[in-house]
Amino acid sequence: MSDPAPSALDAAVAAPTTLPPRVSRRTLIGGGAGLAAVGGLLGTGLLLRERADGQLLDGRQRAAHLLRRAGFAPNSAEVDAALKAGTAATADALLHPERIDDSALDRRLAADAFDLSRVPELQRWWLVRMTASRRPLLEKMTLFWHGLLTSSYHKTANLPQLMATQNQFLRTHALGNLRDLLVGISKDGAMLRWLDGTGSTRRQPNENYARELMELFTMGVGNYSETDVRELSRSLTGWNVDSAGKVAFRPAAHDTGTKTFLGRTGNLGLEEAIDIILAHPATPTHLATRMWEYFVYPSPSAADIKPLVDAYHHSEHDARAMMAALLGSPQFYSNRAYRALVKSPSELTAGVARQLGLTLDATDLSAMAAMGQALLDPPNVAGWAGGPEWLVTGAWMARMRWLLATSGKHSSVLAGLTGAARPEDAVDQAVRTLLDGNISDGARQAIVDHARVARPGGKVPAADLVFLVAATPEYQLA
To answer: I need a surface site. Which of 105, 113, 136, 197 has the fewest CB within 10 A?
Structure first.
């Protein structure tokens, strides 16, 4: 018997695509990488509706936008709750996770009995947190800091528990004081291994962490000298991780001599050095820019980030205050911000799971790695490049394969999508569930046409609808 003819869904996965080095939001939505990957099924020229006032069309879209950026793709019930409460109250609740009961997640994690001393188990544990936590901003901030204050399990091969300790540390301090975060991460066991701080002594100070602490983690390029790198490395000497993974300070290995760092002179140690970095004018600008680009849109202006910089100073370096300024900014809800960021593999997988009520497993972690993001394993000290890099050929194809496989899994949400009698109604229901109702007319019509051809006179399989909606450029953007 001959093989059946390939379906439109097969073509969607099979068609390769390559992104140019830089892809604008308009290009991506307008028929670039995403539409090439789905084999032209959804047509070209798909543009989101432009708003003259620069604001989102309605309250539901504002609520969904907030939940997507301050967490992962929300399900319909979460959007309904945010719409009822209002975006200001919802943002305030997200910013105070300690007020939210997450005991159901704790019970689930305890029942699954993850062995956090094993990296694959730790990765699954974190993915469950992303998909099931009622404190999504806390997990999103933990992911943000993991991508900025990077470490990889590859340097902790014989002490994998160090990555679990670091992950919990980042979560504990994700919305806390930045001094506590930077002091703690500077003497974190995984970080000491990752950037060769362990074994750095007064006789042989290692400069790796000192350089990255300024260049990537806090201040940015061009705001320090090579002398500052040397003097900072001297200030950080003496911390070590022993064979059992215990971090300890060895006074005899610490350089107690006078150092001059960023214009300050004295017998500087780790905490004094962090205070000097926090007081430098480049630090709030760099951190505010990194937050803005992660949660709002690329290349912010000085005016965009000024409220975050002001919050940094007024709160004495508090991450929660900076995020409150970000989520309360008019620019956060602007047309420029809406669907302006490409979803990372973590955002895509956790978001789909949250929206469809799915339980993810080790195969989903493998798919995320194929998409370009293995948790606890950033590609280098600069973290994941993100943006258009998430959609290069191999990564895009991995997305499509994962979406196709996932759309066939059973869930109550998927079952609910099969009730519509007309293709138009079924498509609209799927769009409301996955895209807060916002899809271009061209994309909607293309999916409706496919549904009519695929199931003439009958109901459209939910798996088809989920895959086709999730494969649209709009869904790939957060």
So the answer is: 113
